[in-house]
Amino acid sequence: MSKFQPISTYSDAEHGYELLPFKFEPLGEGEVVLSNIVGEFVILEREKLGALVNHTLDTSDPDYSTLRAKHMLREPGEQAPLELLALKARTKFVNKANFTNLHLFVVSLRCDHSCQYCQVSRQSEDKAKFDMTEETADKALDIVFRSPNPAIKIEFQGGEPLLNWPLIKYIVEKAEERNRLERRNLQFVITTTLSLATDEMFEYCRDHGIFLSSSLDGPEDLHNKNRPRPGRDSYARFVDGLWRAREIVGYDAVSALMTTSPSSMNRVKDIIDEYVKLDFNGVFLRHLSPYGFALRTKSYHAYNAERWLEFFKEGLAYILELNKAGTVFVEHYSSILLTKMLTVRDPSFVDLSNPSGAGISAVVFNYDGDVYASDESRMLHEMGDSTFRIGNLYTNNYEEIFTNDALLTALEDSFTLSAPGCSDCAIEPWCGADPVFHHGMTGDMLGRKPESEFCKRQMGIAKHLLEVMRTDPEAKEIFMKWVGAC
Amino acid sequence: MGGRMLKLSGKVIQLSSAVMPVRRQLFLLSTNPHLPVVLRGKRAFLVRGNEVPEGFRHYLAFDSVPENLPAEAACTVIDRTFAYLAENDVIAIGSDGRIRSLYRASSPHNAVLITERCNNYCLMCSQPPKDVDDGWLMDEAMELIRMIPRHTAKIMCITGGEPTIYGEDFISLVGHFKRYLPHTSLHILSNGRRFADREFARKYAAVGHPEVMVGIPVYSSDPARHDYVVQAKGAFDETLRGILNLKEFGQRVEIRVVVHKQTCDGLPALAEFITRNLLFIDQVALMGLEMTGFTRANLDSLWIDPIEYKDKLSEAVRVLSSYRVPVSVYNHPLCLVNPDVEEAYVRSISDWKNEYALECQGCTRKHDCGGFFSSGIQHGYSQSLKPFT
Ligand code: SF4
Ligand code: SF4
């Protein structure tokens, strides 16, 4: 007799197995996806799920090994699965403990564009009325440096923030000065259309390590249609600004975001081609947020979640084609979900995290001193819903702002691990809480998920990504490259 | 290229009757006839030419006793298979008349075997475990460390058996290395199970060796398969917890995977498991099968031509690289891996184990190729070799 034992000896068929916590959700016809709290997943045939929960799954079944390796089940006495699950859960939530990283300064509401879908901007020459003052900025900086986060990002927003350039410089220099003692990892970003950016501004950005987040909606006709300005030259100004910024500030210092208007729906390839042509390494196929003018002009309802998903899927398919043909190009919305599906990290994207990032990971200082839990919150305020105005720099201190009842209630009520609908949803580990959206749409922090456009979108994307990974191993490897490197 | 296999142990031809060692003795060799006299008492002189200076503790000569051997001097005669011995090497001569080379100053691959005992019983173990009291190997290792000239060893490997089977004494050994040879980086080959004991892991970390790494095998993401390969139920669980403890205490850990019939299909899943659960690991080594020890007994369940798993190997390397996990592929013939593995391809594990096959003659990339374990040349290797032209 051999002194070596066969593999069957090493599974505990006799004592059975224990289930570890997981949730499941049907996928198409005969299959289900199982996911656990740390975002790992297994796709199974429906009958196998039945066998699994009835404790009749055979130890020699290949799915048994997979489920064991992904910590959906364990054999008696095994400790490592629990230790690893705990470690992964800690890793996933660790950034939350650092509290606020992103601090948005709305330095001016004025803008040279009059985009139909813009939520907040003003066509006005009245600086006194719509620009932030130095005094307000100083008070905001006091709050910024109260954040315990070792990394601090200050983002200048508008309107068009470059219209209040002197204040940007003022804030950058004040923050740098304070940081000589604070020693935080301090970053600056300006969100701008680039239409008013001068070489001097770029040189300043270069010298102070300021990043630029700009806007590109697609090919010239689409972009100019979305973004009217005197002279109808938004696109030309963007392209000119982009190349000058790359030349002066640095190639990687400038990124672009896209607004998906109803006119974008049939143009996803054109949009992506435009991004490729201008040598961006990715695109964020976002949906239009339902606030401000967007809601008032009803353009939000010009496409629903289903229509948007079609747009998204068509775009993703095209992007995968590009990658397979050798052009490395990332779709950022997918990346956010994929990071949660395929890595231990949480990307900490404010609108797609749990607990919601509003007021925790990010906070907004409006031009007039009002403090909002997120960018969407101030847009909601413009529509008359001031729930997420969590304080004012002139009347509230740090403690009052961040322990604001409305904020704490919103965070707690929307927490997806306990929210009705979400708590037993298999997509939950990859999803997020969005109390601001739901409050804006339904007057409630949660909304009813089956009716929620947010939920439809998230479910739709997640299931689509799973389907792509299941049927296309090459796509899965591309996804791993998108999310693995950092 | 790639040298013939070196014979590391053998019988001596003759021991001068003057001093017959009563126990195993270690000798630090010198080939320098001008060595200061005050140092000679500690060293053995390796006779290379006609000169046989006085005052050395021992003499080592090839083929016959030198005529001009100082009177009363102890001399051991060895054959030419030991011709590679050189300045600063350390050898052991036993009372049984065997000589073993313990340390070669010129080699980057010095391993100290401290036990043959192990709590695993791997299907492909190259050093089949023996349940014997071999504590003398530990004593010898301690003596060897004191003897190795400082700064001559860049890296050394502690191996077994399972080194941690000694418990506290193993930790003392690491401390001993740190005190005597702080400039020598250490690579410890362990199955990691002992480190599941947090206190043990903590004590190991507390040694504070400046440059030490533990190489720990993980053969599959499926615990049952890992346990089967190492023939020990519950081993996977302990090994994983050991790795977690080591990393928690800031220790460097390498994951080592021997690729064979039982592990090759699961390579991509294992790579994914590592990126998901052990992303903090310092490096991963994917190694070819050595045709020694138990492997030969289990050949049917282990042997697979590397050409058959080359796509799985590629996939595993791609997954690990995507997540920036440093990965190396060892001991695979270059002509049997896909080109996308080359970035991770390392030429060899140990210089004294490398050889090439007859088919390799004329291969234009032999100098890039890791070739085979010499055991492979003896006991079987892939029939799919395709020399580069
Ligand atoms: S919003 Fe919808 S998809 Fe997201 S966790 Fe809740 S129920 Fe699931
Ligand atoms: S043929 Fe060339 S590549 Fe193949 S094993 Fe021999 S030396 Fe290496």
From TrEMBL, chain A:
<dbReference type="InterPro" id="IPR023867">
    <property type="entry name" value="Sulphatase_maturase_rSAM"/>
</dbReference>
<dbReference type="InterPro" id="IPR024023">
    <property type="entry name" value="rSAM_paired_HxsB"/>
</dbReference>
<dbReference type="GO" id="GO:0051536">
    <property type="term" value="F:iron-sulfur cluster binding"/>
</dbReference>
<keyword id="KW-0408">Iron</keyword>
<comment type="similarity">
    <text>Belongs to the radical SAM superfamily. Anaerobic sulfatase-maturating enzyme family.</text>
</comment>
<dbReference type="InterPro" id="IPR013785">
    <property type="entry name" value="Aldolase_TIM"/>
</dbReference>
<dbReference type="InterPro" id="IPR007197">
    <property type="entry name" value="rSAM"/>
</dbReference>
<dbReference type="Pfam" id="PF04055">
    <property type="entry name" value="Radical_SAM"/>
</dbReference>
<keyword id="KW-0949">S-adenosyl-L-methionine</keyword>
<dbReference type="InterPro" id="IPR058240">
    <property type="entry name" value="rSAM_sf"/>
</dbReference>
<dbReference type="GO" id="GO:0016491">
    <property type="term" value="F:oxidoreductase activity"/>
</dbReference>
<dbReference type="GO" id="GO:0046872">
    <property type="term" value="F:metal ion binding"/>
</dbReference>
<keyword id="KW-0411">Iron-sulfur</keyword>
<feature type="domain" description="Radical SAM core">
    <location>
        <begin position="92"/>
        <end position="325"/>
    </location>
</feature>
<dbReference type="InterPro" id="IPR006638">
    <property type="entry name" value="Elp3/MiaA/NifB-like_rSAM"/>
</dbReference>
<protein>
    <submittedName>
        <fullName>His-Xaa-Ser system radical SAM maturase HxsB</fullName>
    </submittedName>
</protein>
<keyword id="KW-0479">Metal-binding</keyword>
